[in-house]
User: Which sequence fits this backbone?
């Protein structure tokens, strides 16, 4: 039972030392790799962020993983994320494969029920997003978009402007 609460001072010391060093290594790697590494632009970015956190936890708590091995693992994740995002900017097919595309779920006050079923979003979730955006009537909404990161964007009719931000989704809707 005592092992569950306290094992040994050496383990605590290791966690403190490795924790500080692994944290410093991660911060340095993130600074070198740029802001995009921890962005939440899409599901892929989210997975990388979770993987970095999981790797850091493993470095801290698993004494069979050395600081060097852990730092190599963090570097590998960040390097792979850099390569994928760098390539995604250059090849549209890869960007679509990795990040997906935003999906129009309401268009000019009309719910797109087939699309909603396909992306597994309910009418209640759309209404909640409209309320959170300060809207009260579906009729006053030009578009509701399920973004690639899972957030829902609401564009009121009076904010739609020329609609350029929705142009590609509207073109897919017309197909």
Assistant:
């Amino acid at each position: 039972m005592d092992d569950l609460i306290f094992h040994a001072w050496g383990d605590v010391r290791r966690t403190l030392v490795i924790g500080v060093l692994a944290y410093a290594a991660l911060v340095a790697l993130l600074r070198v790799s740029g802001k995009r590494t921890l962005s939440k632009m899409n599901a892929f970015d989210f997975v990388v962020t979770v993987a970095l956190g999981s790797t850091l936890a493993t470095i801290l708590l698993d004494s069979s993983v050395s600081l060097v091995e852990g730092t190599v693992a963090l570097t590998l994740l960040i390097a792979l994320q850099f390569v994928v995002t760098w390539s995604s900017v250059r090849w549209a097919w890869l960007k679509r494969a990795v990040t997906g595309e935003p999906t129009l779920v309401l268009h000019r006050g009309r719910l797109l029920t087939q699309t909603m079923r396909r992306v597994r979003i309910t009418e209640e979730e759309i209404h909640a997003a409209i309320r959170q955006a300060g809207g009260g009537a579906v009729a006053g909404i030009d578009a509701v978009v399920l973004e690639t990161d899972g957030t829902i964007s609401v564009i009121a009719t009076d904010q739609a402007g020329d609609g350029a931000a929705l142009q590609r989704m509207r073109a897919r809707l017309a197909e």
